[in-house]
Amino acid sequence: MEDVWAWLLFFFILISLVVMLVFQLMCLSDLEFDYINPYDSASRINGVVVPEFITQGVLCLLYLITGHWFMSLLCVPYMYYNYRLYTRRQHLVDVTEIFNLLNWEKKQRLFKLGYIVLLLFISLFWLIYSALEDDEESL
Q1: CA spacing 20 to 30 A to 88: which of 2, 27, 124, 139?
Q2: What span, in angstroms and rounded, lies between the C-alpha atoms of 139 and 132?
Q3: Distance between CA 74 and CA 9 in Å, rounded?
Q4: pLDDT per residue over 34-51, tens digit each?
Q5: Cβ of 95: how many Cβ atoms within 10 Å?
Q6: Buried b (16+ CB within 10 A) or exposed e, 58-75
Q7: In whole angstroms, what is the distance from residue 108 CA to residue 47 CA?
């Protein structure tokens, strides 16, 4: 039963990562269509970048603690990419350069979103598998 609860926790953490990335994409598309000014868009995006990195790090750590090595290995490239962005100080959106880098920023977040959705589907599969396995053991 503990495994089901762990997978449920992983699932909700991944959902929160999806929400953060979709929020960033919405801010970028609002900026593209001139619904929001660059300063507001950059401040909204920059406000959720570091929590996104922390949430991803916590997820990878939880995978390690619970012994799900394969899922932890799947998180390493994404975490390394975030670490590289952070150490090079490229993780924040610059207000003055946001229009020049708009397509790059959108592509970057779309790839992140695709990667997280892949992890979400794998996590959902293991959640259902663990629940069915736990149900079979109780019979």
Answers
A1: 27
A2: 11
A3: 17
A4: 889 999 999 999 999 999
A5: 15
A6: ebbebbeebebeebbebb
A7: 17
